[in-house]
UniProtKB/TrEMBL annotation:
Residues 251-387 form the Acetyl-CoA hydrolase/transferase C-terminal domain. InterPro entries: AcetylCoA_hyd_C (IPR026888), AcetylCoA_hyd_C_sf (IPR038460), ActCoA_hydro (IPR046433), NagB/RpiA_transferase-like (IPR037171). The keyword Hydrolase applies. Keywords: Hydrolase. This is Acetyl-CoA hydrolase/transferase C-terminal domain-containing protein. Coiled coil: none annotated. One of its GO terms (molecular function) is hydrolase activity. Pfam families: AcetylCoA_hyd_C (PF13336).
Amino acid sequence: MALDGRALAALVRPGARIALADGTGSPRAAYPLLSALARERGDLRLVTGWLPGPADGLELDAFADARTVMPGWGLRRAADAGHVRAVPARLSAVPALVAGPLRPDLLVLAAAPGPFGPVLGSEVSWIRAVIDLGVPVAVVLDHELPRAASGPPLPDEQVFVLGEVGEGPHALAPAVPSAEHEAIGRHVAGLLTDGVRLQWAPGQLGAAVVDGVRAAGVRVRADSGLLGDGVMALEQAGLLVGDPVATYLVGSPELYAWADARGRAGHPVVHRIEHTHDPGRLAADPPLVAVNTAVEIDHDGQVNVEGTATALVGGIGGHPDYAGAAARAARSLSVIALASSHRGRSTRVERLSRPVSTASHDVDVVVTEHGRADLRGLDRDERRRALDPLFPA
């Protein structure tokens, strides 16, 4: 059925800030309604987060102000064009931002029908933090969303249903690792001990890490901000320990079906940021091996994940949350894994193209296809020399 634009307009007061739920389950069917309303009113503001797919129909230049706390793949062009402002924030800080300076007046999200009311689907992220503020929630009921999220149904008194669709979350094909990434994955697997918690991100590097884990036969617990198809491969190989923990799902339809089955069985996969990115939880046992990548790294081991000098690539996200927690915990490791070059240029630079995303003192081990360097306990000069063999001229 068509969504009710008049119902949405009735919820939006003059000058309102609208929070648009992010992730693969972002309410894409509502994008044209939001854009049209913004153009008509001329004074509406928007805050959103990580949009991993095309943002077709979301006309960010229609808003008086549009901000994202995590640019993501779907917002790169809009950010480069100046239509959305990228707020530098670690993911664990986003609940505080939406409760404070970026507090919205309305939340627009997609939810799955549940037996006792609409429930969150393929992500929780910072959405629960906004719901807890008591703001109205404009809901697109999506019958194809997985019921993979922890937490109760949406509060009846806050919910206004705009209509029903059958879109499901945005699907991404599994990545195929390059030879360089496969080598990196093997080096990373050599750092793992049986039963550790492993954080990794989807994409070529993440797929290579999973391949390395499978080849090494190491049993791991999945504890990651983003969870992709690799978790199913680990389970099929008998190497997945316990229930996975994440705040976003991003992958194939098979991944969403897998997560839906787990959620319906009482083992939800995705949880709110306040749980997934809590530094105390991340630094606790079992040990955590946080595997993050970088756009570039400097000679001191400082990391930039936001972009190059000319193009935005992504946001800070959970990078410093996981790296900082792993670096401070005994038997845990903060790993930065990246190819030594990209498009013919070294990824090790004298000076970062953008501000530091993760400090060098939160980096324990650096891995490239040429090997790994353990930087723990080294002074600045020793760290620089240890990195040299990983980035041959």
